[in-house]
Amino acid sequence: MFGSLFEEEEEGFSLASSRGRVVKGEGEPPPPRGRVNLSGIKNQGGTCYLNSLLQTLLFTPEFREELFRLGPKELGCLEDKDKPEAKVRVIPLELQRLFARLLLVDQQSASTADLTDSFGWNNSEESRQHDVQELNRILFSALEHSLVDTSGSAFIQRLYHGTTVNSILCKECGNISQRQEDFLDLTVCVRGVCGLEGALWDMFVEEEMFEGSNLYRCGQCDQLVTAAKSAKLRKLPPFLTVSLLRFNFDFARCERYKETGRYTFPLTINLRPFCEQTEDEDSEYSYELFSVIIHKGGCYGGHYHVYIKDMDHLGLWEPPEEDTKPKVQKKKEVRVYPEPEKDDPLSVLSSIIAQEESRSVLLDQLGQRLMDKIGSSWSKKYRKLHGPIGKFLQNHSDVFVLVNNGTQVALKANTPSPLTQPSSPSHPTPGSSSTPDPVHNNTANPQPEPGLETEPKTAPEPQGSHWFDLNDSTVTSIHERDVENMYQGKESAYMLFYRKTLLHRPSGALRNPGYQVPPHLLKMAEEENRRLQHRREEFEASNNSADLRLHLAPRYRLENGALKPISIEQKEATNLTFDLRRTVGDLRMIIYQMQDLWEGDMALTVAKSLPAGLHLYNTLTDDEVSLYSAGILTGTDLFVWNGREVCGATVQTGAEWEPVLLTVVRPSLGEEEEEEEGEGGGVGEEGGSGLTKELRGFAGRVTLGEVREALGEPQESLLCQEKRGGEGGGEGGGASGWRVFPPGDMQRTLKELALKDGDALLVLETQTQDSSVFSVSGGMVTVTTPSDCRWLQVEYRPERRRKRGGEGEEEEERMRAKVPASGNMLLCEVKQRAIAELQLQEHLAGVACCLRQVDRTGKLLPPVCEELSVRDAGVRLMTSLSLCPGTAPKDTQLFLYFSVGTALSSGLEGEIIVEQSSTVKQCLKKMLESARLEGDGWHLRRLDWCEEVGEALMDEEASLSELKMSHGDALVITEGRLPPKGFLNLSVWLYVEPSAYPVVSMETEVNGMAAGSTEGQRLEVMTAVGGAMVELRTVGQVEISEEATLEELKTQVLTLPALQYVCVPTPAFLRVWQLEGQRLTRILRGQQHTLRKLKLNSGVELCVQQLLREEDLGPKEVLLRVQIGVPGERGYYPPEDLVWDASRDPSPRSLRSALASTYGLSPDSLLLAKHQPHTHTWETFSNWSQQVSKRKKKKKAESLLGAPFHLKDGDIIGVKNLLIDNNRDFSTQQDEQRLREEKEQRRKGGQVAGAEGEGETNRGVGPEKKMGPIKARKPEVALSINVGVFR
C-alpha cells in the first residue's frame, strides 16, 4: 500500500555476495527457547512486518491445521523443485516447514530465509520493509494461486473472506439497487474517529444522502432523485481482519503523516448492528480479539511487532513484571522445612529443585546445592543408606526425571518441555477428524464438544493470561490490559485480528504443539532437535574445558613460609586440559594414572603464585563435586601432595597464612658487614647510601616478634616501618622517616599490621641507634644518608623566551652554577646563592626572577614556591633548575597556563598567578585582562591528558582549590557562554557512503520547497576511511544531559530534521563515532553508559553511521577495516568491516585466526600489516613465535592493543595470502606518490601534509566546505511474491 516506506535492519543480517544473508557459524549453536517456551523469528534486515504476520497466522490454529492437512501428494516435495517437469508448490511447503520449526524445534528463533527465497525475493527485498496490510493481501493471494487444484484451494476463502452489500434506496419509488463485494480485511478510518465501533457505525449504519445538487439517477424512475446509500455486512468470516488507516497524506503540506491519536478497540465485539441479517443468536455475531500487529515509529520509518493471545496455551505464561514479587515470598516459604525432613533425602532434593526458577538443577551442581541446604555432602549424610546420588535419582524415577541427555534433573510434574519429543501429538491426529470443525461445516451455530466451554486446567490461571509480545526473536509475556496501551502514540495498533467466540479448540490441541502436524514434519523437527542438542553438547564440552597447572610436591620445598622449587632446572608445573563438568574424583584418578610412582594419599589443593612463592588455599575433599561447582576455572594452579607436609615440613594452608614478601633494610657500617649482608640480599639501589636491602618472605600469621627472631636480631633492636607517602632512601630532598613499632605490636601478626608485599622493614640494633645516620626521636627514626647533602644545578638563559617547550635556546648562551644544597634549604636561599655564583646581581637588579624545574626534554615546568624548602617543594637533589624572569608564586597561589580558543600545543599561550581561593569567574576575568579581551561571552575549559580542549568548568563560583587545580595546569579561554549545568552541546555529522544512497537535488527531497531554503545549513567534507572516500555531512547540534545514556543520545539525534530519511528500528542500528579534526577516532560503546562515563564534553563532534544490523561492541571488540591484497598487483580489493573480539586473546595469532575463519583461508598462509596513514607506511605483524626456555616462565603473548601497534577502531589491516601471492610488500603506488609529494614539500620548505585530509587534497579532493545536495529516500517499490503456474 505504501511500498517501501519503512526501512529497518535487525540482528542476524549483513550484506553477502551470494544469497544476501549470513548463516550463523557452526561453532556456536543457536540458543534454546526462553522461559515462555515460544520461538521467535529472525529479522533478515527489514522483515519485521513479515514476522508479525507469520506469527499471527501460526497462532491462528485453524489456519495452520488447514495448511498441515495438505500432504506431499498434493504439494510435491522440495527435493524435486529443481526438476523441470515437477510441479512443486514451494510456498506452502516452506510455510509448513517454518510453522513446524516454530512449534517443535528447540531454538530461540527460526529463520525465514527459505520462505523468502520461495517468494523470489532478493537481498534488497529482504532489507526493504513494506506495509503489513499490503503483505497480508499479497501473501493470501499467493497461497490461493499456489493451492489451485488441491483440497486446500478454498480454505483461505472459507476462513477470511467476508461479504458486504452496498445498497442505494430511491426515495421516490422505493427501488433498491444493490452491489455485493467480497473483502479479505476491513479497512477502517482512524482520523476523526474515537474507536473501532464508531468507525464501523459510520461505515455500516450511517446513511449517505444524495440530495440537492448531488442527486442519484434511479434506473426504475429513469430520473435524478433523492436517494440514500448504505452498506451492511452480509456474510461474516470466521476470522475478521481489521486494518487501521493510520497513514494519511496532508495535501496542504504535501507530506505523509501518521495518525497517533487515541483509537480504542474492544477485546470482544458484537457485529449484529452492522449486519444485514440479524435474526440469529448473539453468539453468531460475537468476536474476540486474539492478535494486534503494532507499528512503532513514523510514516517514514518504524518497526513492527505483535501482541498475540495463545489460544492453545502452547507457551508458558508468567507474570511479566510486578507479579514476580510474590514468587520471591513463595520461595522463602518453600525454603523452610522441618528439621526431621533432613533425614529424608527425597524431600530434601525435591525442595531444592522446587526452589529453582526453571524447576530443574544441573546434575553437577546438585551436590553443592545439597551442601548449601543441609551443611553436609551426600557422601557423609546419605551414601551409606541410599548409595550414590545418581543411583538414588534413578531408583525414584516416579519423582525425578533426567533431561537434556542426563545433564539436568527435574521433578516429574514440572519437567521442562523443550518440545523435543512431539511423539504424543502424532497419535491423536487420525482421531481428530471426528471433532466437529466449525470452519468446515458452514452451519450457523456449530455445537462445540462438551467440556471445551469450561476447562478445569485454565481455571487457576490469572485473568487475561496467555498474551505474548512477539518482537522478532524476542518473546515475552504480557497482560491483557497491556493491549490498551496500544490505543495511541507513535507505538500503536495497526492491524486487528478477531475470531468468532464459537470457535472452540479441541482438548487434544491444548498444550500440544504437535497437534495435527504431519508425521514427516514431526520427524524433521526431531532430527533438527537431535542435531541442535549434539551441537550444544559439543559446544558446552569445548567451553567447559579448562587448562590446569599441576604442581607436584616432590619438586618443592618450604622456605620462609612459601613453597619454592627445589631446582630451577625442573619444570615447575605440568599442564593438563580437563573438563570442568567432571568430578574431583575423576581428576584425582587421571593424576594417579599420570604419576605411576605415587604412593599413599593424594590431596589436591588450590594454589596461587605470590611474590614470596607458591601458597596453598582450600583442599578439594568431595570427590563427587564437579570442578565447576568446586570453583575451579581455567588457569587454576593445583598442588598435588599428601595433605600434611612437603619434604618433611608442615605446610600451613588458607588465606590467613598467605606469605608476605618484605624488604628488610639494615645499616651498612663496614665493608665486612656489607659483604655479609650482600650474601643475604645484596645492596639496594643506593649502594653507597649506608643501607642494605634484602627480600625475605614470612607467613602472614606469624607475629612481628617471631619475624625479629627469624632475622636473628636481639630483643633490644628496633623494627621500623617506612612512613607512608615518604620517599625512602633519602634521595630527592632530605632524610626519610620511619615509624618504630611499639612493644605491643610484637605480638600482632603481619596481617593484623596490614603489611603487604614490598613493604620495607628497617632493623636497628642498639649500637647504631645514636649514629649520625640514624636519629631516634619518640616513635620516629630519621635516616640521614650521604645523599641528603648534595647539590642543585642552576642555569640562566638570558634570551630564553617564556615558553613551555623551551625551543630556540642556544648552548653558548647558557650560564650554569652548581649550588651546594640540602633537603632543608629554602629555595629562596638557593636562588640567592645561584645569583651570587653567576655574578648576576647587577644584571638582575630590580628584575623579578624565579626558579623553574626542567624536565628531561628541556621543557620548563611551573615556577617553584621559594618559601618552601627543597624537600617540601618536591625538588630532587642533583637536578637542574632554570633561573627565569618572572614572579615566583607564594604558598597560597597557583601558577597556571592559558590560551585563547585553541590548545596550548599551538604555542599561543600565557601565564598567570592567582590565589588558590579565587573563583573560576575571578580567574577568567584576570586571564581576559591579561589577553586584552572584552565581553562576557567566554568560559574556561580544561585540557585533557593529550593536551586537547576538554570539559568546561561549569561552576563559575567554585574556587580553584575546590576544583583541585594544581601548579602547571592549563586552561583554555573558549568563546561562548556556558551550556546549562549538567548539559552538553554536541555537534552531529552523518557518515555517508557514496554507494549507499543516491544523491538527488533539494527539489526532489522537499515537495515544492525552494532549492535555496536551506542555504548555509548543510556542510560537507570528504575524508578517507579504509582507503575509500566517504562523505561526512553536518546535520546539526543536540543539547543533552551528561547523565543521559548513549541509547538516549542516539534517539535524540534521530529527531534532527536533517535525519528524517535515516530509518532505523532501534538505536542499536546506529554506530556513533567521535570526531577529532574530521577524523573518525573511536566508537562509543555501551548502550546504557552515561555520556559522563563515556567522557564526552561540550563541543565534542560526533558522527552517526547507519548499520544493517544491531551492534553492541564490547570493551575489547575492535572494528577493523580489512583489505585483501590483489595477487600479483600492488593494490587491494574494496575494504570490509571486521569486528575482532580481542577480550580473550589480543595476539596476532588470534587476529589471523579470525581473518582465516571469515574468509575461509589457512591462518598459516596469511601475512598481516597495519596501515599508518600519517606516514603512508605499513607495519607488518610478525608470524614468528618466540620459544621460551624451560627455566623461564611463559611470557605473555604479544598484544596488538598495546605497543607498538595500538590497534583501535577504524584501523586498516592489509592481508596477503602467501599461497597465491609471494609479494610481501604492502605499499601501494598511492603511498609512494604521497611520500614523494611530501618529500618535495619538505624540499621546498612547505609544511608536511601529514593529515589524511591534506593527502586527499593532493589527489584533488580537499576538505574545503561546500554545499552539497541532500539524499532522497529510497524509491518506493511495490511488494510482490512470485508464484508458479499450477493449473
TrEMBL record:
It comes from Hucho hucho. One of its GO terms (molecular function) is cysteine-type deubiquitinase activity. InterPro entries: Papain-like_cys_pep_sf, Peptidase_C19, Peptidase_C19_UCH, UBL_USP40, USP, USP_CS. Gene3D superfamilies: Cysteine proteinases (3.90.70.10). Residues 16-38, 412-470, 667-690, 1228-1274 are annotated as: Disordered. Residues 415-438 have a biased composition (Low complexity). GO terms for biological process: protein deubiquitination. GO terms for cellular component: cytosol; nucleus. Residues 1231-1243 have a biased composition (Basic and acidic residues). This is Ubiquitin specific peptidase 40.
